[in-house]
Amino acid sequence: MRVFVTGASGGIGSAVVEELVAHGHEVVGLARSESSEQKVVEAGGTPLRGGLDDLEVLTAAASDADGVIHLAFSNDFSDLERSIAEEGLAMDTIGAALVGTGKPFVIVSGTTTVDGRPSTEQDPTMVAGPVGGRGVNSQRVLALASQGVRTSAVRLPRSVHERYVAYGFAGILIAEARRSGVSAYVGDGNQRWPAVHRRDAAALFRIMLERGEPGTVVNAVADEGDTMLSLSTAIGEQLGVPVQEVPAETFGPLGMVFGIDQPATSAWTRETYGWEPTHPGLLADLEAGDYPTT
């Protein structure tokens, strides 16, 4: 299958490209810069120069592909509204090129939260809060299932990790600990964060591309929920700094998200699609240390 991947040079995207190539797919990866192009090549794909705002490029690439996986996001937390709007327009553009084709269109989404229990695949997508607009974007894409697009959404927890490479939101804790000399947590630290190794997440994106049912939502969750305190403690031990509660505002607009208890389960995903995480958990990767410096 010829697959067009946005965000192909990113931490998750590069793993997805490698996973697809290893399973016999041909990958065309969107790349905004020369360095991004090189990363796509290193992962085994063919780079296509462009960004999320290059709508003609997106239309042509989606039309030429047998399927699309969308992962790109600017991650500019200083202007989330703009980033979310850019993502939404890009997704709508790709979706329009796929209407009536029956081709797969797999997008990235986020796990949701439910009071008193781990969230499931059947729980509604979050459309409120700092990143609620991304949920609205994903709902529009999933609705294209009624227009001849085999859409699916892979809900990622906020900590997608791999030792030496990336730690998702836990990486923000690492950076703050290095900056301030304190490994920080919010509230009592008992709020739980789900997580997944990026290699396991990549496998689920491939599975949904190959055989996801139209309009399906799956949870790429390996660890149902480690407490923020346990994560901060592991980081503090590795960096040799004290572990301390801090105001949510320490983490800017993400502070409110950090304080939410947000465990999630992937039981339905595993049973339905046979996905089984096999790589180390987030705590194991944090306890192993040797964090990247950039």
Word description of this protein:
- This protein has 294 residues and is of the alpha/beta class.
- The protein has 11 helices and 12 strands.
- It has a 7-stranded parallel beta sheet with strand order 3-2-1-4-5-6-10, with helices on both faces. The chain has a 3-stranded mixed beta sheet with strand order 7-9-11.
- The protein is globular.
- The two termini are 35 Å apart.
- The model has no long low-confidence stretch (mean pLDDT 95).
Q: Topology of this protein?
A:
Blueprint: E1 2-6, H1 11-22, E2 26-31, H2 34-43, E3 46-49, H3 55-64, E4 67-70, H4 80-98, E5 104-110, H5 132-142, E6 150-156, E7 159-161, H6 169-180, E8 183-186, E9 192-197, H7 198-211, E10 216-219, E11 223-227, H8 228-239, E12 243-246, H9 255-258, H10 267-273, H11 282-287
- Structural class, by secondary structure, is alpha/beta
Q: How would you characterize the largest beta sheet?
A: 7 strands, parallel
Mean of the pLDDT scores? 95
Outline: globular
Total strand segments: 12
- Main sheet strand line-up: 3-2-1-4-5-6-10
Radius of gyration: 18 Å
Identify the quaternary structure here.
single chain
Which regions contain 5 or more consecutive residues with pLDDT less than 50? none
Percent helix range = 25-40%
Q: How far is the first residue's CA from the last residue's CA?
A: 35 Å
Bin the strand percentage: 15-25%
